[in-house]
Amino acid sequence: MQETALKIGEVARLAGVPAKTLRYYEGIDLISPVGRTASGYRLYGWRELEQIEFVRRAKLMGLSLDQIRGLVNAAEDGIPNVVFQRLDDLLDHKLEETERKMEELRAFRESLLEYRERAADAEARGACRCGGQGETEFCGCVTATTEGVTPPDLRVVQENGRFVKRAE
Ligand SMILES: [Zn+2]
What we know:
The protein is mainly alpha-helical.
């Protein structure tokens, strides 16, 4: 053990992960040092180094630390193919979530295009009276371009042939 043991600073340098993060991983029971030196320095083995590299890649896949811990534990249980199955499930969910977000962004983009068109229409109609009215009035150009803008938590849905606003 002693000959393959690395101090936290060496692990941090080799793995490209700050020592602070490694201490955090220990605190949440994700990756713990294999032991300590007599003077209390954390010691890590090559297996932990590989686990740290695995955590780094799994984070790039968008997995949470909880999910990653599940995978690390599953790998330690040593049951064949369990990690593959769990990873497959996690990535399925991640894909669904990503596709849903893409749909939402697509809809948001559609709204932006519509608002832009509305502003152009209002301009073409000559809706702006800025400079031509009293100080207490708000020009119609402002209203014309923001009309119909709904906060993101409200969505307009069709219900019995009518459009209604509904909170998500
Ligand atoms: Zn105006």
